[in-house]
Amino acid sequence: MTKKQFIDSLSAIIKEPISVYDTDSFLKEETAINSWSVKIPLTLRNQITISEFQEVVCKIKEDRWKQLVQSGIAVSLIWYSWYDFINESYKFNIINSSHKELSFNSKVEFIENEREILEDFLYPKHIEITFEYLLNIKETDTWDKRLKVYKEHFG
Predict the structure, then answer these.
(1) Terminus of the chain with fewer CB atoms < 10 Å: N or C?
(2) At what angle do helices 50-71 and 114-122 cross, to 10 degrees?
(3) Is a pLDDT exceeding 90 seen at residue 58?
């Protein structure tokens, strides 16, 4: 796959429909329907710039804003994006802003600039975990790394 083919393949995500709810009763449904994941082939990892990928993300956001307006539902949504370092993927969703609880399975650190997420995704820093470390993990040990999440309000 070439860089152009990869970027072109993201156009399917740009136009994908979202579900808009005017209540906070549907967190599971919203996160299931309004969540996406992007993974870059290793052969392209160093070829795509942050600006190029950010351009695609902006197009996705513009489309989500248009869909919110066209829905006619008076609600505000929140865009969340993060880097899933285990799967080496950029993930994002857009859900009703009235949810009090989020569906992240780890501690979250909200950051001000989405560029940091994109840098982590496009230029990942590998965490070295030794076999000895894994052998010494106890059931009571917890992972203290916080998931960096970017948050942006729509509506």
Answers:
(1) N
(2) 130
(3) yes
- Per-residue pLDDT of 64-108, as tens digits, reads 999 999 999 999 999 999 999 888 999 999 988 888 777 777 788
Q: What is the DSSP string of the chain?
A: --HHHHHHHTHHHHT------SSSS-HHHHHHHSEEEEE--GGGTTTS-HHHHHHHHHHHHHHHHHHHHHHT----EEEEEEEETTTTEEEEEEEETT-SS---SS-EEEES-HHHHHHHHHSPPPPP--HHHHHT--TT----PPEEEEEEEE-
Q: Is the pTM of this model over 0.90?
A: no
Number of compact structural domains in the chain: 1
The two three-digit tokens of residue 108, written as one number:
């979250």
pLDDT of residue 70: 93
Domain of 111?
3-154
